[in-house]
Amino acid sequence: KESNSNEPEFYQAVEEVLSSISQLVEGNSVYQQQAILERLIEPERQIIFRVPWLDDNGLVQVNRGFRIEFSSTLGPYKGGLRFHPSVNQSVVKFLGFEQILKNALTGLPLGGAKGGADFNPKGKSDNEIMRFCQSYMTELYRHIGANTDVPAGDIGVGAREIGYLFGQYKRITNQFQGVLTGKPEIMGGSSLRTEATGYGVAYFLNAMLDAKSDSLRGKRCLVSGAGNVALYLMEKLDQYDAVILSCSDSKGTLYCKDGLDVALVKHLKNERGAELRDYLNEHKNAEFTPVNQYPSDGHQVWGYEADIALPCATQNEITKKDAETLVENGCSVVCEGANMPTTADALKVFKEHNVFLGPSKAANAGGVATSQFEMAQNSSMQKWRPEQVDEKLQQVMKSIFETISTTAKQYSNEHDLVLGANIAGFERVADAMLKQGVV
Ligand code: NDP
Question: Checking phi first, is residue 66 left (phi over 0); if not, alpha (psi -120 to 50) or beta?
Answer without folding.
Answer: beta
